[in-house]
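Look at one such:
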Amino acid sequence: MSIKISRRSFVKLLIAATASVVLKLGGIFPEFQTLGLGSVPQVEAAPLGTYYGVTGWFCCGGKYLDPQGIKRCSNMGGGSCLDCKNKLLHCAFPNLYRQGYPYCDYTACNYPMQVTNCTHAITVTTPCSSKSVVVTVHTCGPDMEVFCGDRAPDCSPAAYYDRILDLTPAAFLKLAPLDQGLASARVTV
């Protein structure tokens, strides 16, 4: 059975379907432009593998003293990749594949993220100060489902919510003070 449809009707259906998808994804992927179909925060066009959200910090590896000499972390394990260190520019990414180990997928909040491997380089930039840091993946996390809706106490642009990445203390300090706890982040994988 075949259905005949005019080109004009097909285009209208295609536009309606696309608008529906864009509006649903608009809060998740602010780089989508709505073409006048709704209000989605306008940010610069982003390459594939760019995500907008919130980053926090976590402990892995040995103990960590911040620049003021305050102990922030005790001795911890080395994370999923076995070599995570608090004093290095490392991160936890929620979608990690390690050959020979169970696949780790903590993605949630209707936020699909690409799969990475141990030592994959990621650029994290905070829109509040334009500070940036390049980190490498050394463990899996955060468990995004637990942190859906997180917002940073910094300038917190409307499009930046949900915890999508955690940084070691050394990496987080490149963006914000540890006492801030969370920072708005554009993450380019």
User: Anything to note?
Assistant: Confidence is low (pLDDT under 50) at residues 8-47.
